[in-house]
Amino acid sequence: MTAIIVDPGWRIRTLRSCNEHEKQEMYLRGCLLSKHRFVVLDAVRGVCALAVMAFHFTGHTDFPNAVVAVDLFFMLSGFVICASYGQRVERGEITFSQLIMKRLIRLYPMFLLGLALGSLTLIVMRANGYTTISNFEILGAAVFNSLFMPLINTISIHNFGNLQPAIGSIAPANGALWSLFFEAFISLCMMAFINRRPRELALICVLALAFWFILGLALNISAQSRTLQIMGGYTSGNVMLGYPRVIFGFSVGVLIYKLTEGTTLAGLALLKMRACLGLFAKSPVMLIILTIAALCITYDLRGMVYLASLIVLCPLILLLGSAMTAPGRIVAGISNALGWLSYPLYCLHIPVGNLISVWLHGIRGDAPLAFQLDFPLVASAASILLAVIAGLAIDEPVRKWLTQRFDNGGAIVRKTSGRTEPG
Question: Are 300 and 68 in contact (CB under 8 A)?
Fold first, then answer.
């Protein structure tokens, strides 16, 4: 198949028609792109993490469509991983085990901290009557979850003092960690996605979405629900929905990256569409407004709003954000800070919120806190503060040490005679 490229003048050319200088320039551009940091997408990720926190702390009243933020996280993972390692994988410069090591170093320290804090929080909640789980069950669940394995159970937990309990969370100690189980799952498969052509990725997206829809419909029929509830994966009753959900999101992210490289006619059409969007294609502020609007849309119309957000808005946000640069150092700094904060905040906000709810209930003795003004404010401030401290004092130093010890350009390393060698 003849490779097609798009030059800066929007002319369609074949790779064979390029001279050696142009080929070398394209190769260099590809290498630079693989090291490029998508600053505006950092801001999008941070806004999504804040929206998820607000969604939980306000009893699902603020940012009612924040459930779609997790799908955007999956798409961002596919896009960024392909941008960072795609060309190195295709050139054989990085192996499967090396890529898994990089992913493990990135995810595991904060995941383990969120799991440990959540387990300690469960002990406190049990002592105050928010759950009936035993200390032995808490320990067993923590050990099981620490292996990135979802726990099938019927445990009832009153998160944030709510009268309506959460039942059967696959991560009882910290419900937010459910998506990281599927991030770990897709990490085991990511080489297969990175090596696929756009047409094959498009087919994977369609098949994953179709299977997800059919499985969700079957679960709805069995539950006699008239609302399309396919945004599952977080409880024992809908855990199977998490697999097509993450496959769809991750493959969409990889597909968008490969198309925007401009090597196919479909990619050219996508780039032209992005250029035609005008202000939305150039302004990070407008993109953040679009992201917030997508998260604030009421979850209504029998689940159709979520489906439309999943298929249209999330890919559009990723497509636009991937081409944007921050207009100035201040915006770039804010975007970087939001991106840096997003992961520790996501991992820690639920146990922090539960501890704050126990503390406030002990003072005032009223419920439910999630529908009162002071709890969301206090819990949000505490979560952000702890996320910053944990990120600076624990996550970054631990990941730096693990990288120095186990990752040298993707390889496991060992020290021999004072120098580092591939292992």
Answer: no
